[in-house]
Every structure is written in structure tokens, then in C-alpha cells.
Amino acid sequence: MTKTFTRDEVAKHNTEDSVWFIVDSKVYDVTDFVDAHPGGEFVLRQVAGTDATAAFYNLHRHEVLAKYEDLQIGTVEGEKPTVVTPQPGDLSLVPYGEPLWLTPVFKSPYFSESHRKLQRAMRVFTDKYITPEAQAREVDGKYISQELVDRMSAAGLLHMRLGPGKHLHGMNLLDGAVRGEEFDYFHDMIICQEGARSNARGFQDGQLAGMVIGLPCIMNYMKDEKRKKELMNEIFSGKKYMCLAITEAFAGSDVAGLRTTATKTPDGKHYIVNGTKKWITNGVYSDYFITGVRTEKGLSVLIIPRGEGVETKPIKTSYSPAAGTAYITFDNVKVPVENLLGEENKGIYVILSNFNHERWSMACTSVRMSRTVVEECLKWAHQRIVFGKRLIDQPVIRQKLAKMISLVESNQAWLESITYQMCNMPYKEQSKHLGGPIGLLKMSITRAAHEIADESMQIFGGRGLTQSGMGRVIEMFHRTYKFDAILGGAEEVLGDLGVRQAMAKMPKNSKL
User: Fold this and answer.
1) What percent of the chain has pLDDT over 90?
2) CB neighbours of 151 closer than 8 A, spacing ≥ 6?
3) Looking at domain 354-504, which CATH architecture does it have?
4) Are 240 and 153 in contact (CB under 8 A)?
5) Distance separating alpha carbons of residues 122 and 173, to the nearest angstrom
6) How far is it, in rounded angstroms, from Cα 416 to Cα 111?
7) pLDDT tens digits for 294-311?
8) What is the DSSP letter of 127?
9) What is the CATH number of domain 102-207?
10) Of the CATH numbers 3.30.70.260, 1.20.1290.10, 2.40.110.10, 3.80.10.10, which one belongs to the domain with range 239-350?
11) Any idea what the Cα angle at residue 118 is, between residues 115 and 124, rounded to 5°?
């Protein structure tokens, strides 16, 4: 049974040889810890014998208490802790900390019990397995562990990240949370958004993002059904990794400008590939490279296994090395012609076919990370005391929060609207009608992220510049939000795409 102490008893322990204090009705004895305290012993001796709750939450995240729970010796007599320690799967109670459809008051026409069941299962999975590893890898830069990949594969998570389709039929997804046959784009959105809650942008891409954007090319365009099934089994089982190798130093959003070449051998049985690729997510540790090449009369796409002539080197970027971002060199690489995806010289259709889902997925995760930043700012504004007041009591802070909340909620609503269209359009219709809207949506969300990153940094001040402690989520977001503004098509390119598609449908007889 936990020991209890009166506040008067705690107050006596403020000597050189005995340092106790209270945080949220819990009593801590830090006598033997003062010399090891990262912030120095003076900080602890200042609060010896007192209720240090306000001081603690002005300096530390709640999770710190779990790290040092062995220092707790009891509780204050007649009192109970008031601060909630989140458990795996818990929903946030902070206003706007969750999408409106997950709150008890607001209703939505889009989400069924199937969606809610999947959300609960994915929240638990993320909290228990993904987030702890994500946070560790974000710091040490190591690649995703095979243990986590195997766990994700067994749960059907690798399969679900490819979106709805026959590859999910008959699958046991997160212990029966959803049937593969009923999995739709709202289920897909849930997988994206819940996974992004790990708040580790580098690891988020290192979590086999290359598979998400590369494997559909094989699923939709590989002609050899037997080989297709073998490759899909290798990737979905987590035994092999793959990436999409399109971007070059010469050609980013300008896909048509790529220079890597594939020349057929005289016997017509192989391509000889020469060239380089840059900023390739997961490229450092991939086994297969879905590669855009220039053939005799146009662009083509090849599956290139790692082997002789293929060299990968890590590239340092703004986010964690956990993403496995690579510079790839192909030096006289011999590739069987059977590894061609789609038609020769018509590879642009293979490349473009998956852009909608890729950009939509990025929109899902980016707006969810922005929401987490809003939640962090609301919490901080309520507990940070400056000039004798909480931050939230300052009108200028409330205005910043108002802007951030408005941006997140409006973009989430637009995302859900487009997702509904995806659920109710055949794939060909999606390609025809949703490329522009999805491009504009992604641009809107990443522009909003720019504003949210800026405002959140001002709210957190110096802590927002620090990779640990109170502002670690803000620092990570501010340092990495630009990845979503560039990857999958730059903002300017996507904005132009959206307007040009609108121009094509502009009625000629419409005048002011």
C-alpha cells in the first residue's frame, strides 16, 4: 500500500541531507538524485519541502515523471493526482486535439463503427509499438528494426498502407479490426493519421514509405503474374524492402527531365542502366529500386534489384537518417527486359498513376501532425506562467491559437470531403477528376503547416528550438514540415496543376 504524508511532514524535508517535494499530490524523495539532476541541484533545492507542481510543469513534460517514478515514495494524505497519464489507445481530451469525428459531441456522416474500431486498434498499435521505436530512431538515426517490420506485417499494416484493393481481401487486419473487403479510403486515412502521431518525421518516412509509393507500380503494371505475386509476398512479408527511384539532381518535380538511361543489349534480352538518383527515401537499405529511366523514345520504369553496379550512399537532410535517404548510382547495371513495368517509352503513365494516392497520403499525415502541434500549444499555453500570467491569458497567444485551429479544422474538412469522393469514384474517374483537387489540398495543408510551425515556435520560444524537453515536438515539426511541401510534388507545381485542370474545364461562354 502506498505511504501517505501530510504536507507539514513534507515541508520538514528541506535540508542539506533531505530533499522532498510534491508534484500533483505525489511525494518525491530526491535526496540521492540532486547531484544527478540534469538541471543542477540548485533547482531541486529551491523547491525542497514545497508543492512543486507549478514549477515542474513550467519546466518538464508529464512523461518525465514516468522516467523517475522510482523516486516517488508516497502521496499526500487525503489527496489524489489530477493530471492524467495517457494510456495506449487513449483519445486526447484537449479541444481540437482529435479530429471532430472522434469527439463525443460532434457527428460525421463519413465514419462508421468499422472506422472507429480500426482507429482504436491502430491507436493502441501506434502507442505501444511504433512511437517508442520512432522516438528512439529519430534520435540515434538507425533504420527501422526488423522486429517492428515483422510485427507490422503480421498485423496487416503493411498491406493497409497501400490503400483499398484485392491485396487486402481475406486478410486478418489488426486482429479483425476491419475486413479487407470493407476497407475504404477512410480506413486508409485513419491508418495514415494514426501512424503520424509518433511525431518522428524522419522515422515516418523510414517506416517503409518507399514501399507505399513503389509497390503499386508492380501491382498495377507488372505483366508476369507469377513474378508479381512473388515480389508482393516478399515486400508484404517484410523480408525485402523497396523504394521508388525517380528523382534526380537534374529532375525533381520535372519528371520528364530525368537523365538516367536504359539501353537494350543487341540481343534484346537486357537493359544496361546508367545514371544517378538523389533524395531517394529508403534507398540506403532497399533491395529493389522502382526506377525511372530514359529509353530510346521516351520514359520507362524498371525494377532494378540491388546487385552489381548499384551503389547507395546516405544523404544528410534536415530530418533523421532513419529515413534512409540515399544517393544512388547505376553503373552499367544489367536488367532483364522482363523487369519492365508497363509499356516501354510509356513509363510516364506508371509514374503518374500513383501520384494521387501518394499526395493524398501526405496530406493526411501532414494535417495530423499540424493538429498535434495545436494540441501541444494549447497544453503549453495553459501551464506556462510568464509575467505572472498563463500564456493563454494573453490575447496575442489566443489569436495565434485561433489561426492554427482554423487552419487545421478547415483542411481536415476538405480532406474528408475529397476522401469521400475517392470512396465513390472508380479509379479511372479519380485520376480524371481528383488530381487537381488533391494537388490543391496538399498545397493548402503544407502552406498551413508553414503558418502553424511559425506560430507554434513563437508560443514555445527557446524551448521550440530544443530537440528534447518541452518543445521537442515543436522543434521537430518546425525543422521537418518542409518535407511535405517538397516531396510528392512541390507546392508551386501542385498549385499550378490544380489551376490548369480548372482551366481545362472552364466554360467558354462564361463571362463577367
Assistant:
1) 89
2) 129
3) Up-down Bundle (1.20)
4) no
5) 10
6) 10
7) 999 999 999 999 999 999
8) I
9) 1.10.540
10) 2.40.110.10
11) 140
Residue of 160, 196, 195 whose CA lies nearest to 177: 160
pLDDT, average across residues 369-378 = 98
Mean of the pLDDT values across residues 337-355?
92
Of the candidates 241, 257, 214, 158, the one whose C-alpha atom is nearest the C-alpha of residue 351 is 214
DSSP class of residue 131?
Answer: H
The answer to whether 179 touches 172, Cβ cutoff 8 Å, is no
Segment 29-51, tens digit of pLDDT: 999 999 989 888 899 999 999 99
Range 226-233 average pLDDT: 95
- 3-state SS assignment for residue 253: coil
Pairing of strands 18-23, 26-29: antiparallel
Distances (CA, A) of 217 to 48, 121, 238, 249, 292: 63, 29, 18, 22, 11
Cα(190)–Cα(121) distance, integer angstroms: 10
Q: What is the pLDDT of residue 354?
A: 85
Domain 4-76 has CATH 3.10.120.10: yes
| CA distance linking residue 328 with residue 320, whole number of Å | 19
